[in-house]
Write a structure and sequence with these properties.
With 336 residues, the protein is α/β, with parallel strands linked by helices. Helices cover 44% and strands 14% of the residues. It has twelve helices and ten strands. The strands form two sheets. The protein has an eight-stranded parallel barrel, surrounded by six helices.
Length: 336
């Protein structure tokens, strides 16, 4: 088992020179398949080889300027040798082509183990099968199987007439198409559409029983919610790694947005613990101090999670490298 900071696997060392040489490739360029492609690790193997497994999530930019900026951020974060990176899939499948392009770019240009998000929204079963076949043929070994959110401006989620209604159906399809590593979402504060916490865990266990290898959680700001979720999951027989998702805030406005827009829960917005609100109340007129608190608080969260045995940390970085880089540098003093 490899400790973090991870030493790049041998095949990534072989790729590093080629990856750097190809850094100028445009998104529209071709991505050569490397000799080491068959050595790509799937999620189950990643969490066997790396403890803790540090991973970072990006979203596909909408412009060439955004592409260049993200490429630069990825280069900055590569120095921490993440166990894998993921690329999101826009609401309603709105970023489908750019998601697939960036999945290939992460894997073949940057030499990173890659998990590509895929959602059921707006796709027929045949379209989803073709996307999975394309990912398989492109050497993308891992997928995050999600039901997905409705397109912007649409309140109620509706399946495609020939599509799927639940993530479990996508898990089953992915398992039938290839030997993917499959991640699914978990909700420490309970899915907003669940009828009860128990109902939410039943659905999660069904996804794991259908073939999911890893659970990645929605963001949270109180580690007690994560550990409660893990304990309850273990009690119902969910034994795969449950990876905490961390999103550092840089302002009070960001924190409010993250908890109300990005992290809807069974009881409303994601919870901000009282001890964090007290720390923020002392700094409300000092933007720099709030930004520093966001970094410090996320570092504290991560350090405690890792010290108590979390299998890794999944960072939602919002295509910015500064906050995650600083947190990882802070953690390196513990995990050397």
């Amino acid at each position: 088992m490899r400790a973090w900071p991870h030493k790049s696997p041998e095949h990534l060392h072989k790729l590093s020179k080629r990856s750097l040489e190809s850094a100028q490739l445009s998104l529209e360029g071709s991505f050569a398949k490397h000799d080491s492609e068959e050595m790509a690790l799937r999620l189950r193997e990643i969490f066997q080889h790396y403890r803790p497994a540090i991973s970072i999530e990006f979203f596909p930019p909408k412009s060439e300027d955004g592409d260049r900026a993200l490429a630069s951020k990825i280069e900055e974060l590569r120095v921490f040798n993440p166990a894998f990176c993921s690329i999101t899939y826009g609401a309603g499948g709105s970023t489908r082509e750019r998601t697939l392009l960036w999945a290939r770019r992460l894997r073949h240009q940057f030499g990173l183990e890659t998990m590509c998000h895929l959602t059921c929204v707006g796709h027929s079963q045949m379209e989803l099968r073709r996307i999975l076949e394309q990912l398989r043929d492109d050497g993308i070994e891992n997928v995050m199987a999600l039901r997905g959110d409705p397109p912007r401006g649409v309140d109620n989620w509706q399946p495609h007439p020939d599509g799927f209604s639940h993530a479990i159906e996508l898990v089953r399809l992915a398992r039938s198409v290839g030997e993917f590593g499959i991640g699914v979402a978990g909700f420490p504060e309970v899915h907003p559409e669940a009828t009860s916490p128990e109902d939410d865990l039943r659905h999660l266990k069904a996804k794991v029983d259908a073939g999911a290898d890893v659970v990645v959680t929605q963001l949270f700001y109180d580690n007690a919610d994560y550990w409660r979720f893990v304990d309850n999951a273990r009690r119902v027989g969910i034994n795969v790694p449950i990876v905490p998702g961390i999103l550092p805030f840089r302002s009070v406005a960001q924190l409010e947005k993250f908890t109300t827009v990005y992290a809807r829960t069974f009881r409303g917005p994601a919870r901000v613990p009282e001890h964090l609100r007290r720390r923020l109340s002392n700094l409300e007129h000092d933007a720099q101090a709030v930004a520093k608190l966001g970094i410090d608080y996320a570092t504290e969260q991560c350090r405690e999670l890792l010290e108590k045995g979390a299998p890794g940390i999944h960072f939602y970085c919002l295509n910015e490298s500064d906050a995650v880089s600083e947190i990882l540098r802070n953690l390196q003093t513990t995990w050397r």
